[in-house]
Amino acid sequence: TQLLEQSPQFLSIQEGENLTVYCNSSSVFSSLQWYRQEPGEGPVLLVTVVTGGEVKKLKRLTFQFGDARKDSSLHITAAQPGDTGLYLCAGARGTGFQKLVFGTGTRLLVSP
Amino acid sequence: DAGVIQSPRHEVTEMGQEVTLRCKPISGHNSLFWYRQTMMRGLELLIYFNNNVPIDDSGMPEDRFSAKMPNASFSTLKIQPSEPRDSAVYFCASKGDIGSYNEQFFGPGTRLTVL
């Protein structure tokens, strides 16, 4: 059972365009993370959000945690070829030691 | 500082053979995770250890899979006998209690092909 559904699954855009990736669940998470994975490498953490409604910015990337802590979004402004990769959201539940549940992934291709 | 180290990076084997994947976590990290990634199923947690003790192995597919962590700096994931459906990229990740909230650091992965 996949607890975290991401949309879209694939996205191919031109350099300079804006995009939004969604991560949705029917479950509540105590925190949610976004990772980016490049070919031949492991996922790398981009951000962690822990408070409902929280918004975090990382240069051209804006992350938002839903008010009910069931969903999240990633918005990229003026995408660049270097943004190409697989974007994964991952949710943690409960307190204390937590294992992550990873989303289905969004594969982004930004062409020059 | 060295990140999570995995070996081998690529493994090609024949069905029925034993496969052993190795992981060295980041020094000082006390949690270690084994994941499997495929196009169909995405990134799945197989097992994780805390202070060298297996905490949750509910993601291990079947008895052919086993994992050990004999000390804080080494872990293995073994598949015996291997089957073609085990072909995937296997990642090891580690996490410390201090620092970024629940951040896991991933190794480069082992790409396993079972013919």
Quickly describe the structure:
The complex is a heterodimer of chains A (112) and B (115). With 112 residues, chain A is mainly β.
Folded structure, characterized:
The complex is a heterodimer of chains A (112) and B (115). With 112 residues, chain A is an all-beta fold. Chain A has no helices and 11 strands. Chain A has strands spanning 5-7, 10-14, 19-24, 31-37, 44-49, 55-58, 61-65, 71-76, 85-92, 100-102, 106-111. In chain A, strands 2, 4, 5, 9, 10 and 11 form a 6-stranded mixed sheet that branches. In chain A, a hairpin with a 5-residue loop joins strand 7 (61-65) and strand 8 (71-76). The relative contact order of chain A is 0.34. Chain B is 0% helix and 54% strand. The model of chain B has no long low-confidence stretch (mean pLDDT 92). In chain B, a hairpin with a 2-residue loop joins strand 7 and strand 8. Chain B is globular, with a radius of gyration of 13 Å. In chain B, the strands form 2 sheets. In chain B, strands 2, 4, 5, 6, 9, 10 and 11 form a 7-stranded mixed sheet that branches. In chain B, strands 1-3-8-7 form a 4-stranded antiparallel sheet, with no helix packed on it. Chain B has 115 residues and is mostly beta strands. Classes of the chains: A mainly beta (112), B mainly beta (115). The A-B interface holds A 2, 31, 33, 40-45, 48, 50, 88, 92, 97-105 and B 4, 31, 33, 42-45, 48, 50, 55-56, 91, 93, 100-109.
